[in-house]
Write a structure and sequence with these properties.
The chain is mainly α and about 270 residues long. It contains 10 helices and 6 strands. The protein folds into 2 domains: about 110 residues, no CATH class; about 140 residues, no CATH class. The strands form 2 sheets. A 3-stranded antiparallel beta sheet has the order 1-5-6. Strands 2-3-4 form a 3-stranded antiparallel beta sheet, sandwiched between helices.
Length: about 270
């Protein structure tokens, strides 16, 4: 087994994603000669493979811009942002931020936010398992204890925010979507992505919900999170939001002064 020094590995990795660089030293064919054509094939296969990973993670983005544009954009991204982990399931998380700064994509101003929903879907799908709370979880809890509770979010919970109707755009550009007219002047949409069981759920969030969820995730009590959400949007409705989070399976426990409750009876 051939072992390469750290410097040789870096040289190989850089040349692999930069077609302008020559074949790394020491890379030879069966005849003992330098083989740039063989290395070019390997280089191309690596880029194609990483592009396929992006295609699988961002199908709506691909549908919005078309195959040719997506391949070109992905190829530039792959060379600028090679994998930093051997776990390729984690590859592509910075693609939305790349799209946001990619000049040719400027004519599609909602594209990066659509990509954020798709990456949130990937993160939710691979998140840790947890049994979500049901409506009965709070049945035995005195009403006056609710403000002081800390609601613990399901590990899969992801929130995407946008000033544009990106959830609607995402929905009509999924395989099951029904393409229709979307007006960019429509109100912005915040999105909840969660996987309470085997299926990833993608839902629209009501006014103030994204701020409420963010505050819960930061460890604030219900009362504190309500205050923060209401300050951001006076339309925030606490009862409707908690009911919505329970219905979506977005909560897996709550913490009282005496401990953490995980079961469906709230005991």
């Amino acid at each position: 087994m051939l072992l390469l020094s750290a410097d040789r590995q870096r040289e190989f990795a850089v040349a692999l994603l930069d077609p302008e660089r020559p074949t790394p030293s020491g890379i030879i064919g069966p005849d003992g000669d330098v083989c740039p054509k063989r290395f070019a094939v390997y280089r191309n296969n690596v880029v194609v493979g990483l592009t396929e990973i992006l295609k699988a993670a961002y199908p709506a983005v691909r549908r919005l811009v078309g195959e040719e544009f997506f391949d070109a954009m992905a190829g530039i991204y792959v060379r600028a942002e090679p994998p930093r982990s051997p776990i390729l399931l984690a590859y592509g998380g910075t693609f939305p931020a790349f799209i946001e700064t990619f000049p040719p994509a400027a004519s599609v101003p909602y594209l990066a936010d659509v990509a954020r929903i798709e990456w949130a879907w990937v993160l939710a799908y691979h998140a840790a398992e947890a049994c979500p709370l049901g409506a009965g979880s709070f049945a035995k809890l005195p009403a006056d204890e609710l403000p002081g509770l800390r609601l613990l979010l399901h590990p899969s919970v992801q929130v995407c925010r946008s000033t544009m109707p990106v959830l609607t755009i995402w929905r009509v550009n999924t395989e099951e979507g029904d393409p229709g007219e979307v007006t960019l002047d429509d109100e912005g949409e915040d999105t909840l992505v969660v996987r309470p069981d085997a299926t990833v759920e993608v839902r629209s969030l009501p006014p103030g919900a994204a701020d409420f969820i963010g505050a819960l995730g930061a460890g604030h009590t219900v009362a504190e999170a309500t205050e923060l959400a209401t300050a951001c949007d006076r339309r925030f409705d606490l009862t409707a939001n908690i009911a919505g989070l329970i219905d979506a399976g977005a909560l897996f426990a709550f913490q009282t002064r005496t401990g953490i409750c995980l079961d469906a009876q709230g005991s």
